[in-house]
């Protein structure tokens, strides 16, 4: 028999490493974009926008931890699930913006005003509503883009991890 037929297939560390890098880079870039849109372009987040950010923070922490401890596949998979959760919240938020369904009735945030009294800040700050998209690209809101990017990247990470596990089993 040829050596290639009897030699066991070794795991492909490149797939796991790529999954780890995606699990770290995607939420970091999406959060970076969110903060740039907030602090550079003045698009303050509504409450549902914040809901989408929290799973990305968790994904970054899990992805960073995956580089430091031996449970890298598990932690990377959990990071992918956190990214997926953010994407699904983005789908819900986009549906509210597009009026596909009704959102949380009291969903609004008041943008902070600095340098004034608390009462003046509340009275003069603009109301940020969850059912109005402040910006879109090709008709897709920021929440819609979060859904598309987060869901696709989470699935890609999970596929990389599954393919890595299949190579180990062979």
Automatic annotation (TrEMBL):
GO molecular-function terms, A-Z: protein-disulfide reductase activity
Membrane topology field: Multi-pass membrane protein
Transmembrane domains' residue ranges: 21-42, 54-71, 78-96, 142-162
A Pfam match: DsbB
UniProt GO cellular component terms: membrane
GO annotation terms (biological process): protein folding
Signal peptide range in chain numbering: none
Location of the protein in the cell: Membrane
SUPFAM superfamilies: DsbB-like
Domain of life: Bacteria
Keyword terms: Membrane, Transmembrane, Transmembrane helix
Protein name (Swiss-Prot/TrEMBL): Disulfide bond formation protein B
Organism whose genome encodes this protein: Qipengyuania pelagi
């Amino acid at each position: 028999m040829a050596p290639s037929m009897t030699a066991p297939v070794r795991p492909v560390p490149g797939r796991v490493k790529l999954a780890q890098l995606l699990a770290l880079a995607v939420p970091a870039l999406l959060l970076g974009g969110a903060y740039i849109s907030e602090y550079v372009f003045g698009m303050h987040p509504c409450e549902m926008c914040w809901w989408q950010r929290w799973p990305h923070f968790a994904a970054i922490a899990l992805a960073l931890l995956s580089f430091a401890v031996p449970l890298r596949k598990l932690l990377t998979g959990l990071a992918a699930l956190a990214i997926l959760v953010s994407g699904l919240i983005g789908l819900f938020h986009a549906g509210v913006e597009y009026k596909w369904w009704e959102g949380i009735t009291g969903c609004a945030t008041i943008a902070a005003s600095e340098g004034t009294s608390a009462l003046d800040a509340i009275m003069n700050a603009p109301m940020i509503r969850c059912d109005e998209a402040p910006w879109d690209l090709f008709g897709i809101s920021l929440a819609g883009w979060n859904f598309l990017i987060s869901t696709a990247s989470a699935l890609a990470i999970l596929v990389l991890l599954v393919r890595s596990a299949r190579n180990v089993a062979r």
